Amino acid sequence: MANASQTIPHSIDDEMRASYVAYAMSVIVGRAIPDARDGLKPVHRRVLYSMHEQGIRAGSAPKKSARVVGDVLGKYHPHGDASVYDALVRMAQDFAMRYPLIDGQGNFGSVDGDPAAAMRYTECRLSKISTDILADIDKETVDWRPNYDDAELEPSVLPSRIPNLLVNGSAGIAVGMATNIPPHNLREIVDATIRVIRFPEITIDELMANDDANGFLGVKGPDFPTRGFIYGTSGIRQAFLTGRGRVVMRARAEIEPMPGKNDREMIVVTEIPYQVNKAELLKKIAELVREKKIEGISDLRDESDRDGMRVVIELKRDAPGQIVLNQLYQQTQLQSTFGVNCLAIVHGQPQVLNLKSAIQIFISHRREVVTRRTRFDLRKAKEQRELVEGLGMATTEVDLVVRTIRESRDQDEARDRLMKLPLKGLEEFVRRAGRPENEITAAKARGDYFLSERQAKAILEMRLARLTGLEREKLAGEYGELSDLIAKLEAILGSEALLLDVIVDELKEVREKHGDDRRTEIVAAEGDISIEDLIANEPMAVTVTHGGYLKRVPLTEYRAQGRGGKGTRAAELREEDFVAQLFVANAHADLLFLSDKGKAYAKKVYEIPVASRASRGRHVNNMLAVDPQGERIAAIVPVEKFDEEHFLLTCTRGGTVKRTALSAYANMRSSGIIGVQIEDGDQLLAARIVDVKSEVLIGTAKGMSIRFQVEDVRPMGRDTRGVRGIDLREGDRVIGMDVIDDESKQVLAISANGYGKRTPLKDAEGNSTWRMQNRGGLGIIAMETSERNGELVALRVVSPDDQVMVITNGGQIIRTHVHQIREAGRNTQGVRIIRVSGDERVVDVERLAEPEEGEPAPLPELGESMPPPGDEGPGEDA
């Protein structure tokens, strides 16, 4: 025999593991996770059963909540009273439960997060829908188990005619797992349950679809008690297919004109997402406004009352309502996500359920409940028919029965003597009951009828009034009804189809009694808010410097000054840099960047950094994923819309041109895409947006030029090389491409040694100086490239009022008006523009987008650029 003080070694690891697993399973099964059959956690089940047991049912007088909590604590749930009362309160809140299971009277909290009053002040009773959750619980339909002290029995699950797991949902955190099941519309779930019963092989996609032919609604998605919107169906479908998904919820908010102030708007919120605390939501909005993270809001107030929710957000005069609303959606719980995790207890184990499996488990539960109830009703019907049959036999031979009782000494002897009497008339009683001929024949075949002990006792306890003729007829009628009921119940137990019909009929009855319309509207479009939705689509002035710096400035900063005033500088730049492009585009427009290697990149205008007029901005290489080893941006083109009517015309130094529809560049990756296929040794030089009526002018280093129609270049895809634009002689290369949009303009030609000229597109007699040719030819002379002039550096289509900057490789820059450069014919050498010495050469010429200080500062119209973007991108220094 072991010593009482003997120590038995035991591994602490094993003990901790076993204890923790036992604790975890206790929490999972006994507290935090609902049962898949009735959708209830133990505490909710105990509250409902306790109220049913006490008779606090729908239609009865409500009782104090403290009475219910005390009964639950004393009999079934040995935990804190707060946990029981909190569960009771939640089942009574119409903003927490889609179909409240308790009818509460008093303060049961609010959507603002206000707590319920103490349980000594509130009253409650079961709601009507709870009647169907507890229906038939007294008919041996469910298993019972001892309570915590073995003094009482409690149901292990409720019979529930309602698919409550999906209808009301559930939420709970256990050990190592959690559940979060959204509520759904009862009509939709009941219809889906009937469809699974009728068509067991049905798919989840078919459960979600309407079936008008059979009158089924289809499960659209969660249906929240606080209404609102669900954005997107992909999360719903994923949750239905796998049991897990993300559902985007959004408040219902309308932008309305402010009464009495037509120039101002207000946002009115009437519905909020499920489980959002309205008071905390308003507090968050006020905090964002105070921290200036959301601008444009002037006032915020809550006008909610007993008639419904109404939150008013007043906007400032110039605030765009939709932009402010989108910012609220992104930064507050006006838009939130419900993470679906349909975890429930199945056969004592936690299991993630999809839509169909959850419905199938409920159907299996109802099949068992209806089967056990039918067996119970059949047993009771047979027992009652036995008694009625015995009383009926007693009324057919009243004299014999009365004499036998009178001759007996006591009740026991009377009972025994009655059980031995061979009574006649069973055939007559069955005939009087109106039973079918086969039953009458069977009764006749039995002959004498002997009473059972139960029948004999019933006869001894029978009142003399039941011996009258009218009572005999009543007994016969009751016998017939019981016989019909027994036949029906036996048929149900003997046929799976009849059993399922009973379940379907009860589901239809539930749908008619408790069903209602959807509250939450599902919007098919995705509800994700992009950055673009948060930014007003207002005009922006975008500047690009010769050195490759970009910035955007709201156009209002430029328009604040009159056109005839002194003017304003676009940027304070380094001495060697200047503004090469200035164009106006909406904030949502795109900027298309093309590198000399043919790659295309895109940025939204709003992605260009906002800067003051004095700032130079940010360098283009820091904004794009360009290859730092030798790739540079050759052209920047503003694009309002990637459509089929406009084209991107590109030109390389090797004379290759290509026309591609802008729509081909619509889907851009952050790492860029192939914009033009460039041959080895070639470089992209320029890009322009054109249409089929545009005309193109290309110039070469050897002084040649060609003018042709854009329609001569057939449209091609992005990943192609293009066609020959000009035929280059050996050693020649293209130095520029421009678009001719006005015959009154002139062509500016400047050479490497600093000489230049301007030549009108038409002479004094109106004849064209640059005749139209077919693309691919040698072209005509644009400027004499002698030893004095050097190579041609730039060929630009300009207006006399334009200004140009001439840049040398020695860092010299000269700024001049075009009208100050002498006019000359094509086949001439021009005049000196800038003096160069030694090995210094002119390397670039840019039209100046910014006027001189002191001159008016007109801006181009929206979508135009000044000058139009050609090869005026960053120069060699970029």
UniProtKB/TrEMBL annotation:
The keyword Mitochondrion does not apply. Residues 33-534 form the Topo IIA-type catalytic domain. SMART domains: TOP4c (SM00434). One of its GO terms (molecular function) is DNA negative supercoiling activity. Residues 848-878 are annotated as: Disordered. One of its GO terms (biological process) is DNA-templated DNA replication. A motif (GyrA-box) lies at residues 561-567. One of its GO terms (cellular component) is chromosome. Its main location: cytoplasm. It is an enzyme of class 5 (isomerase). Keywords: ATP-binding, Cytoplasm, DNA-binding, Isomerase, Nucleotide-binding, Topoisomerase. It is found in: Cytoplasm. The active site is at Y121. Heterotetramer, composed of two GyrA and two GyrB chains. In the heterotetramer, GyrA contains the active site tyrosine that forms a transient covalent intermediate with DNA, while GyrB binds cofactors and catalyzes ATP hydrolysis. Heterotetramer composed of ParC and ParE. Belongs to the type II topoisomerase GyrA/ParC subunit family. PANTHER family: DNA GYRASE SUBUNIT A, CHLOROPLASTIC_MITOCHONDRIAL, DNA GYRASE/TOPOISOMERASE SUBUNIT A. Few gyrases are as efficient as E.coli at forming negative supercoils. Not all organisms have 2 type II topoisomerases; in organisms with a single type II topoisomerase this enzyme also has to decatenate newly replicated chromosomes. A type II topoisomerase that negatively supercoils closed circular double-stranded (ds) DNA in an ATP-dependent manner to modulate DNA topology and maintain chromosomes in an underwound state. Negative supercoiling favors strand separation, and DNA replication, transcription, recombination and repair, all of which involve strand separation. Also able to catalyze the interconversion of other topological isomers of dsDNA rings, including catenanes and knotted rings. Type II topoisomerases break and join 2 DNA strands simultaneously in an ATP-dependent manner. This is DNA gyrase subunit A. It comes from Sandaracinus amylolyticus. The lineage of its organism: Bacteria, Pseudomonadati, Myxococcota, Polyangia, Polyangiales.
